[in-house]
Design brief:
The protein has 545 residues and is α+β, with helices and mostly antiparallel strands. The protein is 15% helix and 46% strand. Helix 1 (78-88) packs antiparallel against helix 2 (94-106).
């Protein structure tokens, strides 16, 4: 199981543990898994993972980065280029240029980054300077990916070769080659695609259903955009194709069912907002159903034709992602990611392979955001080899002596730690010292790259009594360092307050040698310092000498 999150990380799960984790260069938009190799036989093909980020697609093979595909740049809009040419020639002033660009944006033209930056300016002087600094030709526009799907290339089987289908912000639908190295087909729709559903085989007969931001559903069939357009009242939030029906979830909590020819069959009103929609397809029995996740934490299972509610799964939080497929040996697994960051895995009951005898999902496990698990999860038991059996026999026969040795070594460790603690308190070598009912804490910090540093000290009286006249002395190697101030006299230390002071340190060695600096907090009535702090100095950057 592969999960890409908003923290720019790609995680690969095996059972209940994370196998590996990859850092992404940008926020992921979509993730697909498909077969790329054409020369290898079907049983030896290794699937690849395609992750869409901004305008690039990163392909991972064998859990390692393999290939990167970038979308080609688009030429600048001719109307926008004309506006900039007239502005550069002085035929329009700054305000007229802004008005023309605003008109183009209102007509749904995709402006280049230069025009967007110009429209953000409000000062006429800055507008005039911006035009004077950008009199050259408009750079090409770099579009970004909005959605991605996979379609089979030549065979309709489980391990068949696939091709990526992507939607872009430039209202394009692109079909790539199987190796994701070039664009095979390009289609232009009337709005930006937000959902893609593919069916069929690319080399024989296929259909791509595209849901766009203009509340319309378009269909691309066998290389041509169909004239049948489904016009919705509100924007779509989910799209699922089940056999010959297109299920569309809308923002008004209604799911519409349309036939592929555009004829509406029925509508269903949901009790809460729709967050996700997914196809339940059991490949062994070819049974299909509709999964709908709602904002109230429910995941509903609906039949294809009868509009019957087969089951309801109640979650603890709203669902943010939903995926049904094969996980490990189980072919009917539903993975649910909640808004809290928890990941829940549910297995379809074996008695529910036929939807006429549907009995629901069985809860497998729930993984929290921090990697922990909730619920009953079996622990991984090691294999019983000969070494394991010998170790068990040894522990059974010599358990008393092993336990006695453990307790004896534990007591020695505690005694050694206690002696070291008493020695530190007696010699005043630690950062905290207790003297006469008072407690002083000293911390030191070095700032800078060299050869000039700043040595900062922070003292705090954490006891209950006020301390008067506390001298602080800094000892160092005079051949390596030069200090601006080596003696500090703290007149009073009030409990609960922090006293900060600093001094400048200059490294005199041209080779950048380093040596610790010792800070002593002294006591006027004793020759033993109250606190002794050792400050490790960094290596001086030689290029700064």
């Amino acid at each position: 199981m592969v999960v890409a999150d908003m923290s720019k990380r790609l995680r690969v799960f095996s059972n209940t543990s994370v196998v590996c984790e990859h850092a992404l260069l940008d926020t992921p938009v979509a993730l697909c898994c498909y077969q790329m190799e054409e020369q290898a036989p079907p049983g030896a093909r290794t699937p690849v993972i395609a992750v869409a980020c901004e305008y690039s697609i990163y392909v991972y093979k064998n859990l390692r980065p393999f290939y990167k595909f970038c979308l080609p740049s688009l030429p600048a809009n001719p109307a926008e280029a004309t506006v900039w040419e007239q502005a550069a020639a002085g035929q329009m002033n700054a305000q007229q240029t802004a008005d023309k660009l605003s008109e183009l944006r209102q007509k749904a033209f995709q402006l280049c980054p230069r025009s967007i930056d110009y429209l953000r300016l409000e000062d006429p002087v800055q507008m005039t300077e911006f035009i004077a600094n950008h009199k050259d030709n408009l750079p090409p526009v770099q579009t970004v990916i909005t959605c991605m799907a996979v379609i089979n290339k030549s065979k309709d089987e489980e391990r068949a070769i696939g091709c990526l289908v992507i939607g872009t912000e430039a209202s394009q639908v692109l079909i790539l080659e199987s190796n994701a190295s070039a664009i095979r087909a390009k289609f232009f729709v009337k709005a930006v695609p937000c959902f893609l559903i593919c069916s069929g085989v690319l080399d024989v007969e296929y259909r791509v259903v595209v849901a766009c931001r203009n509340n319309c559903i378009y269909t691309i069939k066998n290389g041509e955009i169909s004239g049948v357009v489904i016009d919705l009242e509100v924007p779509p939030v989910g799209l699922v194709v089940v056999n010959k029906y297109i299920f569309i979830g809308c923002m008004n909590n209604i799911i519409h069912a349309y036939q592929v020819r555009g004829k509406k069959s029925y509508s269903m009103l949901m009790p809460a907002a729709i967050t996700n929609m997914e196809l339940l397809h059991h490949q062994l029995t070819a049974a299909k159903a509709l999964l709908v996740a709602l904002a109230n934490g429910e995941v509903r299972v609906y039949s294809e034709v009868k509009q019957a509610l087969l089951s309801t799964i109640k979650m603890d939080a709203p669902v943010t992602a939903l995926k049904f497929g094969q996980y490990g040996r189980e072919r009917g697994v539903l993975v649910i990611i909640l808004q809290t960051g928890a990941l829940s895995v549910k297995i379809l009951s074996r008695a529910s392979s036929n939807l006429s005898t549907y009995s629901g999902f069985n809860n497998a496990l729930t993984m929290m955001e921090d990697g922990g698990t909730a619920g009953e999860v079996p622990l991984p038991v090691p294999k019983r080899n000969q070494l394991y059996l010998e170790q068990v026999r040894r522990e059974q026969e010599d358990s008393f002596n092993m336990y006695s040795t453990f307790q004896r070594e534990l007591c020695k460790l505690r005694l050694t730690a206690a002696r070291a603690y008493v020695k530190v308190m007696t010699d005043r070598q630690g950062p905290i010292s207790y003297t006469c009912g008072t407690c002083i804490r000293l911390s030191a910090q070095v700032q800078g790259l060299g050869p000039v540093y700043k040595l900062r000290f922070c003292m705090e009286n954490t006891g209950k009594r006020t301390i008067f006249s506390v001298p602080v002395v800094v000892a160092f190697n005079q051949l390596l360092y030069q200090l601006q101030r080596t003696y500090f006299d703290i007149p009073i230390l009030v409990p609960g307050l922090q006293y900060k002071f600093q001094t400048k340190v200059t490294c005199l060695d041209p080779r950048g040698a380093m040596e610790p600096i010792t800070v002593y907090v002294c006591n006027s009535k004793s020759a033993i310092p109250v606190i002794t702090a050792l400050v490790e100095m960094p290596i001086t950057e030689l290029l700064l000498f």
